[in-house]
Structures are given as C-alpha cells and as structure tokens.
Design a protein that fits this description.
Largest sheet: 4 strands, mixed
CATH topology: Cytochrome p450
Shape: globular
Structural class: alpha+beta
Strand order of the largest sheet: 1-2-6-3
Number of strands: 12
CATH superfamily: Cytochrome P450
Number of domains: 1
C-alpha cells in the first residue's frame, strides 16, 4: 500500500477519533448538566483560559470587578480547571453553608505536601480522617473558651504590655511573641523565651510555607510533574529548595514539640496542655502511630491557625488607632468608665465593653486578613440558580467584597466601629465580620472563640494603658501612613509604623504592678 494512502488513513483515523471523543464528551456533559449552563464569566484565552486574571495583585478586587460585570456567581476556566467566584453573602451562604455536604471538600495539590503543609487538617479532603481531626480539636479548644485558657491569654497579654513599655519600637515582634507564647503554652505546655527562642524562629519559618504555596508564583502548583526536575534548573530549582526548607521546618517543629511534651509526661512533670491531654486520653487498643500523627497534626494546625491571622489583625488595629485618634479616645473613655484606672481589663469585662468589642469587629472587617479565605471544592455535581456547577470545581468566596459592600457598610474604606453600635450596645442586625473571617459551613474555624477572645484582650488592655499615634519623622513631625496591604493568601498592613506611649504615669505603674499579679 502506498505511503500516501497510509498517511491519509492515519489522519482520517485520528480525525475520526477526535470527533467521536468530542461527541461522546458532549453527550456526557449534557447528561451531567441536564442542559443547565455554567455560570456566566469571561471567555478567557485558548487553552490557558483566565490564567492572566488569576495572576493579578489584590485578586479580591479583581474578582469584585468581575462580579460587577457578570453577577455574584462567576465562572472562570484556568488551564482546564473550573473556578467559581462567589461575590455576595447570599451566594456564599447558599453554596457553602446550605449545600455544605457537596461543597466542603478541598482541592489536593502536591504543593501542599512539598511546602510542609500536609499536617494542616484545614487543607485535608472532606473525609473521615478530617472529621477525626476536627473532633479532637473541638474537644480541646471548645467553642466556649474555658476559664483557664482565658486566664492564660491575660497572662501573656500582660507580658506583651510590659514589652511595649520597655521597647515600643518592636511592637510587631511583641505581637508575634504574645500570640506564639500563648498558643505554644496552651497546645504544648512549653514556655517560650521572651527573646530569641529557637522554637519561635523555627515555627515562623514553617509558617512561611503557607504564604509560599498560596502566593501563586510556585510553578509546581500548576504543573505538578515539575517536582521531579533537578535543582539546578533556573527559577524552578530555587523554588523547590525553598519548598524543601519550609517542609523541613514544619517537620522539625511537629516532631520536636511533640517530643518535648512526651518527655514531660514520661518524667512525671505537670503538663496540662492540649497535646498532653490528647496523649493521656489515648485508648490502650488504639493504633499508636496513627493517633500520634493525629495529635501532631491537630496541635501544629492550632498553632498555625492562631498565629498569622491574629498577628495581622492586631497590626491593623495599631494602624487604625494611629489614623483615628477620635475612635481611640472613645474606646479609652469606655474603658475608664467601666474599669477605672486601678486595674487592667479582664475577660470578665468583655460584655460591659461594647465599643471596644466594636473596635475588634471593625478591625476584622476593615483589614480582612484572608480576603478570599480557603477555597472550597465540590465533591459532586450541583445545580444552583439554574446553573450547572460540576464536581471538582474550586469555589472562591470573596469575603473582602462582602465586608466592603457599601450597601451593607457605608463608607467601607473608613474605620468606623460605630457602625456596629445602636443605643450604646452592639447591634445584632449588622452583618458580623466573623461570619466571613472564620470560614463557612462545615469548614468554619473551630478555634474562632479562642482567637476572638485573645484579640479582644490585646485590644482592650493596650487601649487602657497606651496611646497610639502616627510615627514621627526626624524633625518630630507626624508621618501620614497609608492603610495599604501586602501579601496574597494572608495579608498584612504594608506600613504599620506608629508611636506608642503610656497614657500617664498611673498607666505605666499599672502595667508594672499588674504584670506581677498576672504571672503569679
């Protein structure tokens, strides 16, 4: 047979296969979708789809602009992947709360393991292993924060005040210390040194893995096969080395802190930490290797979840106070009226301090720490508003857009705690930022109450004894800082410089005297 005939037959066969595959795929798609279309969205480029849209800075604003054009449920195709952006409270509640049985999964990507985040059960698939982790976490960090955990928070916030008094310029490090020391003591029963603690440095290094794998700049995230490339490959090699560094830090923290707690128990030392309690409650017939892995995962997830988000929120609070002295004075007046200047506020005062509580709510709303949250993933085909959302679709809830909706929050770019106050009390009719900050449906953060209580104590105790004003230049003139952010998955104030001084000699004495009381 002539070579030309063979070539023609081969080409014809390939074309026939492509046509049949396309028709079969089309029939299957129409059967699955029942004739319902995908939600509206931009067409995108051939093959890569809307990949350029997903590469923009401040993605939450880019998504918000898309929703203004296409509505509050927008479909994007990125390298063949279906992505749905949810731009309103209604869409988020409908899909992530009311339909959570089908929308509580997480997309799995090799970069989670490569960056050392495979311990984080917030990223686990929605399955029995995740439920076991969630159950253990909720047992030991319950929705109603136990008294001993609240007292622990007060102790470390008191130490935070002392650090602010002695070296106010290092307030960012002091914030990090306050949260890190509190959660490490709670979870592992380990005391953190007040400076240069190697455990803290290692934990911070492990936390960098979160920002790294969510930054969108790591090539392996899009082409997992690249994980097998040699380290000498330009750009990719440096990224793989960085991923390996994050993973090594996370592994060392996970095992090292576990060993410290286990040694305490073996030697008969008193340790009432979360990890110690988990280990002491193990059933004799349990699979020890599996149970130990679960305990390590739960504890390190608790640390990671409580660290970066609260660290960012409190930085934003300091920026807001420096920019809004009238709000600061109003909160301080409430504190003086309720508490006086003879003691520091405690968790028992929280219900009597609605305006300070409003300052916390506005800090969470104004500076949305995770503007797009952790994406959900559909575990089955679903229909919503006449649209078809296929299994394996990434669902992105634009929390930032909801918390900056001018129809709900007037002047959303301004820091206005009074929006949460009516007749001197918190207004329950105003949308609570925590409904968006701490996740949705079955994936909502189980540590929300602990985190909110800790942030409240830092805000209340700081305002009671310190004035926060703008930074000064070399001539002593105030510098006008701009409330901009940096980061992608978790965002931070780009400029959080400020001046921190004791409100009075009485306030300074109160700090010094109260620290001793809190630590005894």
């Amino acid at each position: 047979m002539p070579i030309e005939d063979l070539t023609l037959r081969l080409v014809a066969g390939i074309l026939c296969y492509m046509v049949v595959s396309y028709v079969v795929g089309l029939i299957r798609w129409r059967t699955r979708s029942r004739g319902h279309p995908l939600p509206p969205g931009p067409r995108g480029l051939p093959i890569v789809g809307s990949v350029l849209h997903m590469a923009q800075a401040e993605m939450w604003k880019a998504h918000q602009n898309l929703c203004k054009v296409y509505g509050d449920v927008v479909h994007l195709s990125v390298l063949g992947k279906h992505i749905i952006v949810l731009g309103s409270q209604q869409a988020i509640v409908d899909l992530l709360d009311k339909m959570s049985a089908a929308t509580s999964d997480r997309e799995q990507n090799p970069i989670i393991e490569l960056s050392g985040q495979s311990f984080n059960f917030a990223l686990f698939p929605y399955n029995h292993w995740w439920r076991r982790h969630r159950r253990v976490f909720s047992q030991h960090v319950p929705p109603t924060v136990p008294e001993e955990q609240l007292l622990l928070q007060e102790q470390y916030v008191g130490l935070f005040l002392r650090k602010l008094l002695t070296s106010p310029a290092g307030f960012r490090d002091h914030i990090r210390y306050a949260f890190t020391a509190t959660i490490v003591k709670l979870v592992y029963g380990v005391d953190v040194a007040e400076s240069d603690d190697p455990n803290v440095a290692l934990m911070v290094r492990a936390l960098e893995g979160v920002q790294g794998f969510t930054s969108g700049r790591v090539l392996v995230q899009y082409l997992p096969i690249l994980r097998h490339m040699p380290l000498w490959v330009p750009v990719l090699g440096s990224q793989l080395r960085e991923l390996a560094g994050w993973r090594a830090a996370a592994d060392e923290v996970k095992q090292g802190m576990f060993d410290k707690t286990q040694d305490d128990l073996t030697q008969g030392h008193q340790n009432t930490s979360v990890l110690a309690n988990i280990l002491q409650e193990l059933d004799e017939d349990a699979n020890i290797v599996e149970e130990h892995l679960l305990a390590k995962n739960v504890c390190l997830t608790a640390f990671e979840g409580a660290s970066d988000t609260t660290f960012s929120t409190i930085q934003a609070f300091f920026v807001a106070m420096a920019l809004n002295p009238d709000i600061q004075w109003k909160a301080q007046a409430e504190l003086e009226s309720v508490i006086g200047m003879y003691r520091l506020p405690t968790h028992r005062d929280r219900a009597s301090l609605p305006y300070v509580s409003a300052v916390l709510k506005e800090s969470l709303r104004w500076h949305n720490v995770m503007p797009l949250g952790v994406p959900h993933y559909t575990s089955e085909d679903i229909e919503y508003r006449g649209y078809f959302i296929p299994k394996g679709t990434v669902l992105i809830a634009n929390a930032w857009a909801c918390l900056h909706d001018p129809d709900v929050y007037s002047d959303p770019d301004l820091f206005l705690p009074d929006r949460f106050i009516r007749n001197g009390n918190l207004d329950p009719s105003v949308r609570d930022p925590s409904d968006f900050i701490f996740g949705y449906g079955r994936r909502a953060c189980a540590g929300q109450a602990f985190a909110e209580a800790n942030m409240f104590m830092i805000i209340a105790m700081t305002l009671h004894v310190f004035d926060i004003t703008p930074p000064l230049d070399e001539a002593g003139r105030p510098i006008q800082i701009q409330p901009k952010v940096r980061g992608s998955f978790v965002v931070y104030p780009a400029d959080c410089r400020c001046t921190i001084r004791p409100r009075s000699a009485q306030a300074e004495a109160l700090i010094v005297d109260s620290v001793g009381e809190l630590t005894t």
